[in-house]
Amino acid sequence: MKHEIIDALESSLGDMNGKEQLSYLKDIAEYLNNNGQDVAQKLAERISRDCILQSRCPDCFSKLEITTFINCAGEYFGSPAYERGNEVFCPMCGWGDK
Ligand SMILES: [Zn+2]
């Protein structure tokens, strides 16, 4: 996996000349050396956010399903009151289950 990340970085170099590429890669290496844990955390957060936006499970990337529930929420002026809500879950791995 480490080499794939380096390959992805190298493929993003575009039209930079050799010296610019080396300087860019050195800057990235120094940044990761000092902030690698933070970069990993931000990447994980982005993956989770994008999964939800695409209705995909953050754990296995399968499509999420939504179920609607109705709960009795007590009584309101002598009549039973109900609340309606949605639950999102992954049918493949169980993510989101209570
Ligand atoms: Zn899942």
Low-confidence segments: none
Helix fraction bin: 40-55%
Characterize the largest beta sheet: strand count, sense, and whether it forms a barrel: 2 strands, antiparallel
The pLDDT mean sits at 90
CA radius of gyration is 23 Å
What binds here, in terms of ligands, is: zinc ion
- Secondary-structure-based class equals alpha+beta
Tally of discrete structural domains = 2
Q: First CA to last CA: what distance?
A: 33 Å
Structure annotation, total helices: 2
Strand order of the largest sheet: 1-2
Q: Strand fraction band?
A: 15-25%
Number of strands: 2
User: Tell me, what's the shape?
Assistant: elongated
Written as H for each helix and E for each strand, in order along the chain, the element string is: HHEE
Question: Your description of this structure?
Answer:
With 98 residues, this protein is of the alpha+beta class. It has two helices and two strands. The longest helix is centred in the middle third of the chain and has 36 residues, at 18-53. The protein is elongated, with a radius of gyration of 23 Å. The mean pLDDT is 90. It binds zinc ion.
